[in-house]
Amino acid sequence: xxxxxSRAIWIALLANTSIFLTKAVxxxxxxxxxxxxxxxxxLSDLVNSIFLLIGMKxxxxxxxxxxxxxxxKEVYFWSFIASVFMFGVxxxxxxxxxxxxxxxxxxxxxxxxxxFTLFLSVIFESFSLREAMRAVxxxxxxxxxxxxxxxxxxxxxxxxxxxxxxxIFWEDLAALTGLTIALLAVFIxxxxxxxxYDGIASMIIGIVLxxxxxxxxxxNRAMIVGRAAHPNIVKCIxxxxxxxxxxxxxxxxxxxxxxxxxxxxxxTAETKPSLEVDQAxxxxxxxxxxxxxxxxxxxxxxxxxxxxxxIADWQNTKRKMDRYNS
Length: 326
Hints:
Elements: H1 3-30, H2 33-59, H3 74-103, H4 111-140, H5 148-156, H6 163-192, H7 196-225, H8 231-242, E1 247-259, E2 262-271, H9 277-294, E3 298-307, H10 311-325
Parallel strand pairs: 2-3
Antiparallel strand pairs: 1-2
Organism: Desulfofarcimen acetoxidans (strain ATCC 49208 / DSM 771 / KCTC 5769 / VKM B-1644 / 5575)
GO cellular component, one term: membrane
Pfam families: Cation_efflux (PF01545), ZT_dimer (PF16916)
C-alpha cells in the first residue's frame, strides 16, 4: 500500500466517523427513511474503512515459509469482506427502510436540520473524494489539475491495482450520489407532503449501493483468484526485456498480482543458440535489473531463456500442456 493510498483511507475514516454521527442524530430526529439510509451508508463506509486498514496491516507482513510470496492478497480479501458488508447491511437496510416508508409512511420532522446535515455531508465527502482521486492518479502514475482530476481518475480507475484505493474512490462517489438523492427526496417530500418520495429515494440509494457492492466484490474476487496485469503493463515489461543484448524475442509473459502494487512475472525469452551458462546468467540478471529499476510494482520474477534452436521443442511441449490443461 502506498502512503498516498493509506492517507486517503485515513481521511475517509475520519470523514465517515464525523458524517455518520451527524447523520445518525439527524435521522433519529427527522424520522426520514432517506436520512436513515444515508446514516446506514456512513456506518457502512466507516466499517469498510476499518476493514481496509486491517487488510493493509495484515498485507504488510513479510514473506515466510508458508507464504513465500508474502501476504499481499490479504488486502483483496478484506476489501471483498467490506463489499459483502456494504451489500448486506447498507443496501438491504436502505431498501427495507424505503419499502416500509412507502407502504406505511411516517411523518418527516426537522427538515431544515436534515438539509443542513446533508449539505454538510456533501462538503465532507467532496474533500474525501478529491483525496481518493489523487490516490487513483498516484497509483496509475497520471497527472491532472482542476476539474480534470475527476475525468482523469474516472478513466484510469480500472487500471488501479490497489483495491483499497479503488474501493474508497467508488465509495465516495456513491456517497455523493446518495446524498444528492437524499437532498432532493427530503426537499420534495417536505414541499409536497408526499412521503412516497422519501421511501423511493431510500430504495434507490440501496440499489445504488448494492450495485456498487456487487461490482467491487467481483473485482476483488478476480484479484484473489489471480488476475493478470493490464496489457499495457505486460507490453512495457516485454519492451524493457527486449532492450537487453542477447534477447531476440519474448515468447511468453505471464503476470499475476500478489498484492497491492506487487506483481509476479513468469517470462520465457528467446536468445541466440549455443549460449554459455555464464552468459545466460548475465542476461537473466540484466533483464531483472532493468525491469525492477523501471517498474517498482514488480516484486517477483522467473525468467526462462530458450535458444532459437530449442524454440520448436518448447512450442510443441507448450501445445501438449495446453491440450492437457483444457
